[in-house]
């Protein structure tokens, strides 16, 4: 059975209509990154941060999985493949396409976190700073999202899976955000073959054994058909 670790980024969800973060202008959906995606921004204006993520949650709920998400779910269902999808995305499009082995290294729009006691629970459609934590009762609710300056989730598990893989595939990522941008180097040092499927070459594209350019909704189904012998 082939063990494959898949890293997915904003490019795979962009084709479902979910807007991507562009660092070149320092804005994310017309907001400064510092204001909506840092612990300091949340401390300064929690109402703004909650409004921002409430809107993102609504957009994610309105989106639908595209052929790239569906193809990865098809590959996972094949008995000849042991697939782990590590996603930088905070939507649930992989799960709604049918993928079950998905790890959200940057958290999820559909999770809530108490920053007082670190209790987690499913997020309602609309969240507010005054929402009480179901565990400690304090009004310390924040989205369960990994912000800039915070450590992504389950990194030890990811590194272990990556180094034990038979193949590492990066899909729809810029190659600019660490630690995910370093996965190709980790795989290379472990002797794991690597493949990039991206709209355009990423920042680390030259490190991959093979790189293909094009829309994820085209490239991923083509690659999956190859894997399945179709």
TrEMBL record:
Cellular localisation: Cytoplasm
UniProt binding sites for substrate: 53, 56
Predominant cellular place of this UniProt entry's protein: cytoplasm
Binding residues for Zn(2+): 114, 117, 133, 136
Pfam families: SIR2
EC number of this enzyme: 2.3.1.286
Cofactor(s) for this UniProt protein: Zn(2+)
Active site: 106
Residue span(s) of domain Deacetylase sirtuin-type: 1-230
Binding site for NAD(+): 9-28, 88-91, 172-174, 198-200, 216
Comment text on domains: 2 residues (Tyr-53 and Arg-56) present in a large hydrophobic pocket are probably involved in substrate specificity. They are important for desuccinylation activity, but dispensable for deacetylation activity.
Family the UniProt entry places it in: Belongs to the sirtuin family. Class III subfamily.
Physiological role: NAD-dependent lysine deacetylase and desuccinylase that specifically removes acetyl and succinyl groups on target proteins. Modulates the activities of several proteins which are inactive in their acylated form.
Name of this chain's protein: NAD-dependent protein deacylase
Gene that encodes the chain: cobB
């Amino acid at each position: 059975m082939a063990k494959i670790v898949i890293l997915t980024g904003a490019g795979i969800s962009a084709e479902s209509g979910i807007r991507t973060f562009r660092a070149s202008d320092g804005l994310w959906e017309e907001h400064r990154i510092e204001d909506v995606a840092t612990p300091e921004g949340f401390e300064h204006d929690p109402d703004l941060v909650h409004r921002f993520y409430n809107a993102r949650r609504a957009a994610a709920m309105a989106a639908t999985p595209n052929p790239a998400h569906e193809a990865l779910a098809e590959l996972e269902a094949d008995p000849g493949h042991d697939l782990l999808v590590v996603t930088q995305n905070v939507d649930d499009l992989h799960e709604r396409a049918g993928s079950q082995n998905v790890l959200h290294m940057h958290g999820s729009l559909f999770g809530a976190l108490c920053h007082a006691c670190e209790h987690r629970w499913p997020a309602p459609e609309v969240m507010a700073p005054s929402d009480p934590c179901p565990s400690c009762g304090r009004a310390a609710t924040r989205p369960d999202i990994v912000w800039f300056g915070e450590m992504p989730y389950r990194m030890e598990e990811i590194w272990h899976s990556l180094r034990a893989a038979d193949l590492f595939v990066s899909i729809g990522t810029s190659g600019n955000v660490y630690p995910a941008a370093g996965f190709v180097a980790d795989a290379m040092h472990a002797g794991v073959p690597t493949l990039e499927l991206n709209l355009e070459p990423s920042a680390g594209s030259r490190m991959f054994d093979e790189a293909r350019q094009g829309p994820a909704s085209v490239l991923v189904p083509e690659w999956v058909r190859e894997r399945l012998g179709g």
